[in-house]
Specification:
CATH class of the largest domain: Alpha Beta
Strand content: 15-25%
Oligomer: single chain
Bound molecules: zinc ion
CATH topology of the largest domain: Nucleotidyltransferase, domain 5
Order of helices and strands: EHHHEEEEEEEHEEEHHEHHEEEEH
Largest sheet: 8 strands, antiparallel
Distance between the termini: 30 Å
Number of helices: 9
Number of domains: 3
Structural class: alpha+beta
Helix content: 40-55%
Radius of gyration: 25 Å
Mean pLDDT: 91
Shape: globular
Low-confidence stretches: none
């Protein structure tokens, strides 16, 4: 194989125990003031510049921090005693938030941030599965605080990276990103040259909400796989939404009161549970059948905007957004590559002859008389488009 070494990065969540929750809260408040300061500075003075995040970091530091040359700076940081890597974490967060603001039109600028603090190097020490020491702000000065951790593991041979403290009403969590070696780091071209199998995947708003198959380089689709459970997800969500609606009617509030928080949490958990379940099933399918490339339909922006809005937030099709995100990192961890292929016309043309198709329930029929399962037709078109993109001769 190639000389390059490839990694995946995933986040492990740990429960935190400490006597000094208030220090963590103070640290986060301080951090978010810094984020806000740099966010405004970025948008007011550097928004038009074509700079990388690294260059922006340097530019923002030049504007706010006196360097070795002792020259005055135009927007001196209004706080003293800000550790270097605390500041850099805040600048990175501010730049990310600023870029996201610039990309979305007609949104209000953020007035107050509530972001979790990432502890870069110099801000944490001695991190294991059971404890970590963080540099925290107690309102007056910086000090080291030892925290107990529980509830998760750092995999063997994995490299833990800069952790974040996430303050929730249910408790405090430490999120540790871990870097692991990926078993197969070949790029798409190398895999195609080795005639590896691909696995095209489509998503629907039906009970059978994920459909995939294994395609060989000559375009033959084997072992079609219909993953069910879309209706079950939808019904579970509907139960919870009904409860929210009932409590809304009973209390006459906007549905965001404390009693309803647990329901929203429940919805989020359902979303997490099902997207994990479906994505795991696809990955296991790929491993079982030896598919080395996962092919997902790349939606047009208009599709995402209109179709996703139409189907509603708690529908199987809407869940596909979460499934895709999870597929991307799970595939990478297993040495499977994810490609996104333009989905234009994949469901409205015949995978045998390219003619126009008509659908009748689950069946399709094309203008030249080919017929079959409409979803598999879409899966075939997606897989063939991927193979064609790599110059494979597909029938
Ligand atoms: Zn046809």
């Amino acid at each position: 194989m190639g000389k390059s070494i490839f990694y995946s990065i995933t986040t492990r969540r740990f429960n935190v125990r400490t006597k000094h929750v208030e220090y963590l809260v103070k640290t986060q408040e301080f951090y978010n003031e810094l984020v806000k300061f740099y966010y405004d500075l970025y948008l007011d003075h550097l928004a038009g510049e074509q700079l990388s995040s690294q260059e922006l970091l340097r530019a923002l530091e030049k504007l706010t921090v006196v360097g070795r040359d002792k020259q005055e700076v135009p927007y001196l940081l209004p706080w003293k005693k800000v550790p270097l890597y605390f500041r850099r974490a805040a600048i990175n967060a501010a730049v990310a938030a600023g870029k996201s603001y610039l990309m979305r039109n007609q949104q209000q600028r953020t007035r107050q941030f509530h972001q979790a603090v990432t502890f870069y190097k110099g801000m944490y020490q001695d991190m294991t599965e059971s404890e970590v020491t963080l540099k925290v702000w107690n309102g007056e000065k910086w000090r080291w605080l030892r925290l107990r951790l529980s509830g998760n593991k750092i995999p063997e041979n994995a490299q833990p990276m800069s952790p974040s403290i996430v303050i929730k009403s249910s408790g405090i969590e430490l999120h540790i990103p871990v870097k692991e070696l990926v078993p197969d780091g070949r790029n798409a071209k190398m895999r195609m040259e080795a005639d590896e199998k691909i696995c095209p995947v489509i998503f629907t708003n039906q009970d059978t909400c994920v459909i995939c198959g294994c395609m060989t380089v000559d375009g033959k689709l084997e072992n079609p796989n219909f993953i069910r459970g879309g209706r079950s997800y939808e019904n579970h969500c509907k139960d919870v939404l009904d409860k929210i609606e009932k409590s809304r009617q009973a209390s006459g509030d906007d549905g965001n009161c404390k009693a309803n928080q647990k329901y929203w949490l429940k919805l989020k958990n359902l979303n997490d549970f099902y997207s994990h379940k479906f994505s795991r099933e696809v990955i296991e399918y790929c491993l079982k059948h030896g598919a080395k490339i996962l092919v997902l339909p790349e939606y047009q922006e208009t599709y995402s905007k209109y179709v996703m809005t139409t189907v509603g937030n708690w529908s199987p099709l809407h869940l596909s957004g979460q499934i895709r995100e999870k597929l991307k990192y799970k595939a990478w961890q297993e040495g499977i590559l994810v490609l996104e292929v333009n989905e234009y016309h994949i469901s409205s043309t015949c995978s045998v002859c390219g003619g126009k198709v008509k659908r009748k329930n689950l069946e399709y029929q094309c203008e030249n008389g080919h017929r079959g399962n409409a979803y598999l037709n879409t899966v075939r078109n997606l897989g063939k488009r991927c193979l064609n993109g790599f110059g494979k001769q597909v029938k």
